Amino acid sequence: MRVLIVDDDAGLRQSLALLLQETGYDVVAEGDPEQALQRAMSGTFDLVLCDVRMPKMDGVTFLRRYRADGGQALMIMMSAHGSEDSALAAMREGAYDYLHKPFRPDEVTMTLKKAEEREKLRREVEVLRTTLGAGAASDLVVCESRAMRDLLDLATRVARHSTTVLITGESGTGKEVLARAIHRMSPRSEQGFTAINCAAIPEHLLESELFGHVRGAFTGATADRAGLFELAHEGTLLLDEIGDLPLDLQAKLLRVLEESEIRRVGGRESKKVDVRVLAATAKPLDAAVERGEFRADLYYRLNVVHLHLPPLRERPDDVPALLTHFARQAATRLGHPVSITPSALDALTHHSWPGNVRELRNAVERAAVLGTGGPLEPRDFALANGNGNGTGHHGDGHGSPTHATGGSLELKTQVEAVERHAIQRALEASGGNRRQAASLLGISLRTLFYKMRRLPVH
After folding, report:
1. Three-class DSSP category at 127
2. Residues 122 and 178 in one domain
3. Domain of 435: which CATH number?
């Protein structure tokens, strides 16, 4: 690593340079801060050791000017007795650490080793961010079909621009997943990704949620509050279910998109924002425009680039890849292998999947939780179109439902036994976490409590 030493004391510069050179560092020493600043910006340095008190320029000023000029090296300040406050001030300005004069050789080498490890970690993170950001959408979205690959190729090309994108598709097709992939590939990937479901927030609160409000704007507004557009500044904002946005808010959203500025509810001043907007909807917006339910000007402003996700039933080639992906995720969460038999794969591939990718993911997780631990068969998946016959229960440590009912064929008894067995498996899989167990079973926590009291389940 290259180290720049900045200190007006010639003796200390020489001794410190010798110590670091013997340790294996490439060292440059400079006594004049102005010249040191020029050298720092003309060469590539990993660490800068800078004295806090120098006659021509103090260390804090050197640090500020170095950073203002774009210098990225880690700064370690050197302070003599009585100048600790200046060293701490430099750390508040962004210096990594400081050494107290006179210092022992082992103190210096240990401090530099810590700084070197931090710099190495920072570089690894930068490489990782670059790798993730520079990837293609096909690396972030699981698919095999030609239709999806063509769509992801378009998403990859549009990601590097700040163009507004309208993502359409049935519920569960993966619109938010695609939006996140676009953000990850964009120049804004290091900033935040924010998503809001416009249909999930009451109309009277939605404007405040999007644009913020000032104190006293309405009952309950006890303090100023930033909205999502401000919070997403320099990042990406996904407006999900944009088709449910009320007409009066559509006009305000259009103004934000056109002028890149927002005004908080109850406020008088406008504020500039730099936000990349993605919009998603399961509704046909062109039809909503014809009915007068959606503004035509906003529709055309959002629909600069249109990405339509086809339903899963139209791309059966994607099912095997998605099954493999979700089975791997389930295995990681549950702590045991999850595999699918060829017959189950065939049944799942030919299923219509009305709930699309979301339904497929939930089906895999539920089968993995409630199955016996072996490869999953068609009967382990509850498929509505007859390609499976419900959750499989074919002999495990808990006993089958038939055994649990003493051989009774009474329907009510059989159903209760199946429910009890399923709840027990879900509780085991979730480590006793009832909220997670309810999620695995696809029921509310309240329903789970009710069934546990009625059956009962322990």
Report:
1. helix
2. no
3. 1.10.8.60
pLDDT single digits (tens) 25-49: 899 999 999 999 988 887 778 899 9
Which residues, other chains included, contact 244 with Cβ-Cβ below 8 Å and sequence gap of 6+? 198, 199, 283
408 CB contacts (<8 Å, ≥6 apart)? 414
Dist. CA 140–CA 65, nearest whole Å? 41
Q: In what order do the strands lie in the sheet with 97-100?
A: 26-30, 2-6, 47-51, 74-79, 97-100
114 and 168 inside one domain: no
Residues 297 and 322 in one domain: no
Q: How many domains does the chain have?
A: 3
Domain stops at, among 283, 310, 337: 310
Contacts of 111 (CB under 8 A, 6+ apart): 76, 97, 99
Q: Given pLDDT bands bounded at 50, 70 and 90, which one contains residue 392?
A: very low
- Longest distance between any two alpha carbons in the chain, whole Å: 96
Q: Which domain holds residue 204?
A: 137-310
The pair phi, psi for residue 421, each rounded to 5°, is: -65, -45
- For the segment 289-315, the average pLDDT, to the nearest whole number, is 94
Distance separating alpha carbons of residues 98 and 51, to the nearest angstrom = 9
User: Which residue blocks in 260-317 are alpha helix, DSSP H?
Assistant: 285-290, 296-302
Closest residue by Cα to residue 52 from 18, 15, 95, 17: 95
- Looking up residue 227, the CATH number of its domain turns out to be 3.40.50.300
Q: What is the pLDDT of residues 143-176, one digit of tens each?
A: 888 899 899 989 998 998 899 999 999 999 999 9
Instruction: State the CB neighbour count (10 A cutoff) for residue 351.
Output: 23
Domain identity same for 369 and 225: no
Q: Is 210 helix (H, G, I), strand (E, B) or coil?
A: helix
Categorise residue 258: left if φ over 0, alpha if ψ from -120 to 50, beta otherwise.
Answer: alpha
Do 160 and 301 sit in the same domain of this protein? yes
CB 89 within 8 A of CB 60: yes
